[in-house]
């Protein structure tokens, strides 16, 4: 198991910079990752804006987030976990380009 596989399993891969360029592109170091981030980020809402939308809508605090920038099915999306003051956990999926709420799951 590689370090990357361990991070994927732990759900921590989104905390690292994007993977470097594919072989043969002529990019060195993190240049491939920078190019990827520039291509993806220009169309997506900033995480801070997405966080504000979720926290205001659900009167809760974001405790975990994950960006799925290029999913195989559907639009790019942010997966957020929020906790209310009463301890209720809410899992929300928001459209990463528009901020539209796609899915809400709550637990008591």
From TrEMBL:
Keyword terms of this UniProt record: Signal
Signal peptide: 1-21
Record's protein name: Peptidase YpeB-like protein
Phylogenetic classification of the source organism: Bacteria, Pseudomonadati, Pseudomonadota, Alphaproteobacteria, Rhodothalassiales
């Amino acid at each position: 198991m590689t370090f990357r596989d361990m991070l994927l399993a732990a759900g921590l891969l989104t905390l690292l910079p994007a993977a470097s360029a594919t072989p043969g592109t002529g990019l060195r170091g993190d240049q491939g990752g920078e190019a990827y981030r520039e291509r993806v980020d220009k169309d997506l809402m900033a995480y801070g804006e997405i966080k504000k939308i979720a926290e205001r809508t659900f009167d809760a605090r974001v405790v975990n987030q994950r960006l799925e920038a290029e999913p195989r099915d559907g639009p790019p999306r942010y997966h957020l976990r929020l906790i209310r003051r009463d301890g209720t956990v809410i899992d929300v999926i928001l459209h990463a380009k528009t901020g539209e709420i796609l899915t809400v799951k709550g637990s008591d």
